[in-house]
Amino acid sequence: MGYLRAVDPFPLESGEHTKLHEFYARLAEGRLVTTACAGCGRTAWPPRGFCPECSSDQFAWVDLPQEGTVHAFTIQETGLPAGFDGPRVFAIVKIDGHRVFSILLTRDPAAVRIGQRARLTPLRVADDPKGGARWLPAFTPV
Questions:
Q1: Do the Cβ atoms of 26 and 33 come closer than 8 Å?
Q2: Half-sphere exposure of 13 (CA within 13 A, CB side)
Q3: Percent of all residues in the chain with a pLDDT value above 90, rounded to a whole number
Q4: Could you tell me if 70 and 113 are in contact, meaning their C-beta atoms sit under 8 angstroms apart?
Q5: Residues in CB range of 97: below 8 A, 6 or more apart
Q6: Residue 89: pLDDT above 80?
């Protein structure tokens, strides 16, 4: 019997399961994107299939800036998910008014500071069940 995952984001990444799969396809290209409502123009984070403001389900993909500012962070040394080495810095990076929860890739967690600039550096994680590459948003301190 193989290892089973309690939570697996694969369905969110697959075009077979959701129209938000474009987020992951563009992240693999090194682009951080979100949805902009075609009705009222509001952008949302995380990307959404409908607008929380006007309830429209029509949207366009828009690029977000490649850099943001560390808004908050925590350093986790134990109890990390399978496949992640510690210590791991989890951060909220503020980008264009949105707060993006992500991993902060750094060799020196003690040097991370609130207000520090961080650049998008997508992180490749375990492949999906069909062998396709999978990505998470991550940032590197500038």
A1: yes
A2: 21
A3: 61
A4: yes
A5: none
A6: yes
**Residue spans per domain, the chain:** 10-141
Does the structure show a pLDDT above 60 at 7? no
Strands (DSSP E) contained in the chain are 33-37, 43-44, 59-63, 67-76, 88-95, 98-104, 117-120, 123-125, 134-136, 138-141
Residue located via tokens 């999978």: 134
Tokens 């089973």 found at: 4
Tokens at residue 69, please? 């500012």
pLDDT tens digits along 100-118: 999 999 999 999 999 999 9
- The owner of tokens 């134990």 is 78
pLDDT in tens, 17-45: 677 888 888 999 999 999 999 999 999 99
Residue 10 near residue 102, CB atoms below 8 Å: no
